Amino acid sequence: MDGTNYSMVSEFLFVGLTSSWKIQLLLCVFSSTFYVASVMGNSLVMLTVTSDPHLHSSMYFLLANLSFIDLGVSSVITLKMIYDLFRKHKIISFGGCITEIFFLHIIGGVEMVLLIAMAFDRYVAICKPLHYLTIMNQKMCILLLVAAWIIGLLHSVIQLVFVIKLPFCGPNLIDSFYCDFPQVIKLACTDTYRLEFMVTANSGFISLGSFFILVVSYIFIMITVRKHSAGGLSKALSTLSTHVTVVVLFFGPCIFVYTWSHPTSHLDKFLGILNFLITFLLLF
Hints:
The protein is mainly α. About 75% of the residues lie in helices and about 5% in strands. The chain has 9 helices and 3 strands. Strands 2-1-3 form a 3-stranded mixed beta sheet. The longest helix has about 35 residues. The radius of gyration is 21 Å and the shape is globular. It starts with 10 loop residues before the first strand and ends with a helix. The relative contact order is 0.14.
């Protein structure tokens, strides 16, 4: 197709979640309830951590930043999804789609690093309690936060640079309710095999690698605690259980979407709702 004059696509059209008005109304109530609960919960976490001097520790510092990130990712996707439920033609401009992908992957990258940082914080607190305040000081917390944002920005920009340069001449129909690399790349009027492989290597392997690091850290914590006391194991399990649940729910859909080449549209939409609504509600 080299040498062909392309008519640039100026907007994309979402298929959406369903064409049934009854189901759309139910989804609207469901999504709005979870979104409001997520906003209120995460805002409460940030307000409590910043206003209470007793919570000015590394664990709560990371938790407050995680809550801030959750507000961002749920707002980027969920508000547009709720708005589109009332529209017959679910349209997003090309620039809006690129912006959505940009913020989605920045926030996703920061989220992964923060979850790893929180696991490291729990490791130090449980396995090296005498050195906790020395290791997890204010300087370390700020360093982890800065690293998270740099990694998230690089993760998003590296992929986005290639997508912006792709020729889009139609069709412009995205079988989803949000923009992301796998759906948009398929609409390009050129061979995208190498780019799809790069997205898999970037997003898929990063998700899989981060999940592996977290699982190994949890196992190491459990082994260390078990060697010292049997009672401490149950306490460590109760401390980490919520974090482990969130990690599985967060990384599970990411790994599945970015490493499986041909997911069905219904499964892809279900994983999207699970990731953007339910998982981020559980985080607080």
